[in-house]
Amino acid sequence: MTLPFELVAQGKVREVYAVDDDRLLLVASDRISAYDVVLPTPVPDKGRVLTALSVWWFEQLAPVLAEHGAEHHLLATGDALLAEGVPAELAGRSMLVRRLEMLPVECVARGYLSGSGTHLYQRSGAIVDVALPAGLVEGSRLPEPVFTPSTKAEVGEHDEAIGFAQVVDAVGAERAEALRALTLALYRRGAEIAEDAGIVLADTKFEFGTADGTLVLGDEVLTPDSSRFWPAITWSPGAPQPSFDKQYVRDWLTTSGWDRVSPAPELPEAVVAATRERYVTAYEKLTGRSWS
Ligand SMILES: C[C@H](c1ccccc1)n1cc(-c2ncnc(N)c2C#N)cn1
């Protein structure tokens, strides 16, 4: 589908278009990635559900942003975008946002030890400059949420974990402190809401920018694509935790014999349907709203 806007950034499952000098359009696709590979089979409604979830989170987090003198970048979504020339089939999975000066830091908050965090911890007892107690394992809940920033890697590369000193070098001491405080406050609020919904928010990645000197929360927010969502009922430290949304896909890929190097296989209809249902369930449990 061609949009009357210039494509300015392309991610695995999302695109960014320039609407005008001050506004961008973030379009979420129905593509799903697993093991860092974009799979050939789309998940119907994934883009719309995750966009609706981000929009809901922006509403929930607005008070926390205000407490920190910050804002968010969302301007509009859904039918309001039709007047901007966005085709109807994209409007529900698009967000019109303020164009920001994006900060060169991935602001990661972790409440649990997982993934790259576990590997770093096993090597040094810390995540870069964030010391952690001994005896933690994959899936352990941390004594308190921690700020573990990373660099923004080039497309196809992995983000590299950095220390707070490197954030200071990149954005200055005052802004670095503000990023850490705000990242942790947003994570705590998100984790609290998720816990009430039976979901463990293990970790998440925020992206911030500035507009007229004000810190602004950008990108997507607290979605299963930017965060690790675990079903609380199955949480059991000591092994990789089942993903709330991608476990059916991961398990099928494992049983399919895919070698993770050759092109990924098409997903069976049943796996696609079950995965779509997981996204809808996450939205309904978190927001208390019916997807239909
Ligand atoms: C990394 C991310 C991305 C998203 C989707 C697909 C590929 C990349 N991105 C965010 C911006 C961006 N730039 C200026 N103002 C903004 N409000 C935003 C946002 N959000 C540019 N790229």
Task: Describe the 3D structure.
This protein is α+β, with helices and mostly antiparallel strands and 292 residues long. The chain has two domains: 7-99, Phosphorylase Kinase, domain 1; 102-246, D-amino Acid Aminotransferase, Chain A, domain 1. 33% of the residues lie in helices and 25% in strands. It has seven helices and 17 strands. It has a five-stranded antiparallel β-sheet. α4 crosses α5 (173-196) and α6 (247-256) packs antiparallel against α7. The mean pLDDT is 97. It binds the ligand C[C@H](c1ccccc1)n1cc(-c2ncnc(N)c2C#N)cn1. Residues 9-11, 14-16, 24, 26, 73, 97-100, 102, 209, 218-219 line the site of ligand Q0Q.
The general outline is globular
Tally of distinct domains: 2
Major pleated sheet: 5 strands, antiparallel
- Order of strands, main sheet, comes to 1-2-3-8-7
| Structure classification | alpha+beta
Query: What is the terminal separation in angstroms?
Result: 25 Å
Q: What is the tally of beta strands?
A: 17
Give, in order, the helices and strands.
Answer: EEEEEHEEHEEEHEEEHHEEEEHH
At the fourth level of CATH, the homologous superfamily of the largest domain is: ATP-grasp fold, B domain
On the 0 to 100 scale, the average pLDDT is 97
Beta-strand percentage? 25-35%
**What CATH architecture of the largest domain do you see?**
2-Layer Sandwich
Reported by name, the CATH topology of the largest domain is D-amino Acid Aminotransferase, Chain A, domain 1
Low-confidence stretches: none
Helix content percent band = 25-40%
CATH class of the largest domain: Alpha Beta
Radius of gyration from CA coordinates: 19 Å
Helix count from the secondary structure assignment = 7
Ligands: ligand Q0Q
